[in-house]
Amino acid sequence: MQVALGVSERRACQTLGQTRAVPRYTPPVWAEEVPLAGRVIELAAVYGCYGTPQITALLRGEGWLVNHKRVERIGRPVGLKVPQKQPKRGRLWRNDGSCVRLRPAYKDHVWAYDFVRDRTHDGAGFKMLTVVDEFTRECLAIDVARKLTSDDVLERLSWLMTTRGVPAPIRSNKGPEFTAQGVRRWLADVQVRTLFIASGSPWENGYVESFKGKRRNELLDRELFCSRREAKVLIERWRQHYNQMRPHSALVYRPPAPETQAVSWPYVSLRASPRLSDFDGLSQEVYDLWGKVRRAGATGVPWEPVQLRAFHAAAGFAGRAPTLESPVNGWIVAAG
């Protein structure tokens, strides 16, 4: 008003009905404000698609005592992205036998999988098979190849069920790779129920669709893949970041599978020949079955359902299967 009308500060304040201390107020700058602002800018540069809640969760994980309002105040001038509000949607009700009402109750209760297509910089297409645990929101695997068939789906499922355990149902659409007779017969033998969503209703498979949207927004739309090999490496690195570090809003801004985990015996690398001393206390039957695990992992031959149940029963896992770390870390298997 002073500049536009050419009046004094006293006259402008009298007209607006405010004290002269208001335009003269200078907000204090705290000692930790400068390094905190610098860290917010660094995180916003690395994770450009993260909003205020995700950045706040990352800062708290690093030891900063901040709330979301302070982060939003600091991040607004530097363009920290705030997620757009989504339109309200009605509840999904059972529709002609739809599987949408089945909710996961515990870890490895319900799995979901789906395919996604993308292209490299030179136009070469590739396909991604994504498997997600609906309860923990953990991404169990992302297979990247030029072509993925029902045999590849069967191979990935057999490996995951060998190392993690067998889910109760598995949710998917009615794609030809998922409805193949070989896949359905094998799942029935392992006593895994198939949940097929209605045609043209991707929202019924909401967990994997949400994961695909995050991957598209945070990786596929931001990276330029020069080859399929580069895409495979970057996608696997992002999967590890998603599982071990990325704050998830549905988990109170905690990662689905934190990196720090307790490892107990037997601790054996599949790249080294196992010794009988590694299986001290286990029977010869379990030792023989472990050799089959190594051969299955080396050749990619899917296990038969009888072998899966026999290994879990003989090793005494009682529903708690071994855990498999990423192949980038050396195919380490730990049973605990």
On the 0 to 100 scale, the average pLDDT is 76
Q: Under CATH, the topology of the largest domain is which?
A: Nucleotidyltransferase, domain 5
**How many whole angstroms does the radius of gyration measure?**
26 Å
CATH superfamily of the largest domain: Ribonuclease H-like superfamily/Ribonuclease H
The helix count comes to 12
Largest sheet: 5 strands, mixed
Q: In percent, how helical is the residue content? A: 25-40%
What's the CATH first level of the largest domain?
Answer: Alpha Beta
Spans of at least 5 consecutive residues whose pLDDT stays below 50 are 93-99, 261-282, 297-301, 317-336
Beta strand %: 5-15%
Report the principal-axis shape.
Answer: elongated
Strands side by side in the biggest sheet: 3-2-1-4-5
Question: Structural class per helix/strand content?
Answer: alpha/beta
The name of the CATH architecture of the largest domain is 2-Layer Sandwich
Q: What is the count of distinct domains?
A: 3
The tally of strands reads: 8
Distance between the termini: 71 Å
Order of helices and strands: HHHHHHEEEHEHEHHEHHEE
